[in-house]
Amino acid sequence: MKIWYQTMSPYRYDPDFDEYGKTIEEQCRRASRPGTEVYVEGVPVFMPEIDRFKSLMYYHTSQTVNQMLKAEKEGYDAFINGCSFDTAVDEGREMLSIPVVGIAHTNLHIAAMLGELFTIVTCEPYIAERYRQLIVRYGLQSKYLQGNYVFPITEPDIARALKEPEPLAEKFKAVAEKAVADGASVIIPIPVHISQLFYKIGGLTNLNGALVLDPIAVAVKFAEMLVDLKKLGIEFSKTFQVYASPGRDLLMKAREMYAKVFKIEY
Predict the structure, then answer these.
(1) pTM of the predicted protein model
(2) CB crowding 3-39: b at 16 or more within 10 Å, else e
(3) Domains along the chain?
(4) How confident is the prediction for the chain on average, in pLDDT?
(5) How far apart are CA 53 and CA 36, in angstroms?
């Protein structure tokens, strides 16, 4: 089985993210079964903190769509979108015949099954708000413990901290402990940089009885399961507006027709 893991970082294009990308590879290897190969790829163009604005993410997301099509063309069995906000997951499920896994979609539903109340521990208030919106979209409000479980720090700073993770990991752990005291039974560390800090200090899956998820491991195992289910004829619904495929001919026609205007001008 071959799985493509797409990170929205510039891993393989910017050496500053080598440690981040290699840690993702380690997490994928640990989670995957024997015989599963997980290839981790980044994006060539990267603007720090571009995910603060949905309009600017349009530029970033187009790279993911291209990588999705490339993965299917190269014979991968599943595609994991490692973007914390599940950008282009719906589009990918329409266009591709292989399973497309959204890291948020997967972890939110797994968290809802594995505990009573889950919460998000993150590094930016805007990430917490975006997840609140995703939780509403996915219909999981009744399982979500909303709170200010944020330790402010930039994602590039977290990436650099991977070489010396203990101090920062302990600070995030303190925020997670407060969430558990408030009633959370499952913690989802977002973005995955944070889960990497816990991974680097030996892994953290239990905190005062509460479960701490590894979002990358959960996404890898879910991708493997979807590949297995597909062989049994069980896959994403293909009804209209629910992942229905436009088909190759219509996709190619649309690409040709819109080629001159497929851009944004300011």
Answers:
(1) 0.94
(2) bbbbbbbbbeeeeebebbbebbeebbeebbeeebebe
(3) 2-102+218-257 (3.40.50.1860), 105-215 (3.40.50.12500)
(4) 93
(5) 35
